[in-house]
Model the fold of this input.
Amino acid sequence: MLNGLSVDVEEYFQVGAFERTIAKADWPRYAPRVEHNTGAVLDLFAESGVKATFFTLGWVADRHPALIRRIVAEGHEIASHGWDHQRVFTMTADEFRADLARARGALENAGGVKVTGYRAPSFSIDQRTPWAHIVLAEEGYAYSSSVAPVAHDHYGWRDSPRFAWRPRSDSALIELPVTVAQVAGRRMATGGGFFRLLPAALTDFAVRQVNAQDRAGIFYFHPWEVDPGQPRVEGAPLKSRVRHYSRLGAMAGKLRGLIARHEWGRVDAVAAREIAR
Done:
């Protein structure tokens, strides 16, 4: 079964774990690495013969349009990750709409293709944002992959469905939550840092578990996770530093294994299958 392979394209200094350590006004002080790191991911995908979806910040597209063009030229999907990684639950509906428009404009200008998919920064669509899916539908998005159906200290909507669901009865918009494993009644996250830090067998189990129910898995990670040489951010909390920097050198190898063990493709292809159900 085709599963959704996705990359959340942002700089190492833009992650949610450092948002209280690094002010957005200071971002220009940090050396950019996103183009190099995303290039490494593109090379890995080409080597493995897979296509994926790149949920990309408008901020990145505005500064690295050649990267967006390369992603498109190599057959991958460009989708929106918002403008500058502001969490959706910190915005009003009008601010969210403006953020969507600004990011989509930068992505479409750089890539020359229509953007129809969206992922909220830090999976920040949850029970606090009942208007978010309404805005996405009104703005013409085909799908969102913005919900993590787990309980977590940074994000999560524990009571969300585990599989694709329609947030609005009056819209074809579909929500594709990222895949979690169900173990002894507990939901366990499997993508990003969880994949990097925990045994890959947990993610394999989760993908096989959802595939057995005729559902696609949705997996994600970040380009900075394949960059063990990235600068260390001073002053960040210990927990954030442990989560961010641990096992960066192992990530590329783990990704190659995961890709080889399952069938992967673009998230818009998974969305189209779910919409057609």
In short: The beta strands are 2-9, 53-56, 77-80, 117-118, 143-144, 174-175, 180-183, 186-189, 218-221, 263-265. The first strand starts at residue 2 and ends at 9. The chain has a mean pLDDT of 96.
